[in-house]
Design the sequence.
């Protein structure tokens, strides 16, 4: 079994680390979790625009990126490594698969 990252996975990892390193220092994390939203909305918007993070594991036909659970796990790992305050768990990990499984075209 080859456990090395694919080129796409490596790019996801590099891009996440680049964005997060600029926005997730200790002071930024503390400030973000004290907001009413509980996360940095500007960081989340950047992650959504640059990587499509909320729809990482959703098919392209449903507006997602079309990656696998492995890429989603990679995203979760990178955000966790930096303690990045984002709603990734609620959106991409919990809600998106439920919508995909139970939602309708409407």
Sequence:
């Amino acid at each position: 079994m080859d456990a090395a990252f694919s080129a796409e996975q490596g790019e996801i990892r590099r891009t996440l680390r680049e964005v997060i390193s600029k926005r997730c220092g200790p002071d930024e994390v503390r400030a973000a979790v004290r907001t009413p939203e509980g996360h940095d909305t500007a960081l989340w918007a950047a992650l959504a625009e640059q990587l499509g993070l909320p729809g990482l594991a959703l098919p392209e036909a449903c507006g997602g990126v079309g990656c696998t659970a492995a890429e989603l796990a990679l995203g979760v790992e990178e955000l966790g490594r930096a303690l990045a305050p984002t709603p990734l768990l609620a959106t991409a990990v919990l809600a998106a698969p439920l919508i995909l499984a139970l939602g309708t075209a409407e």
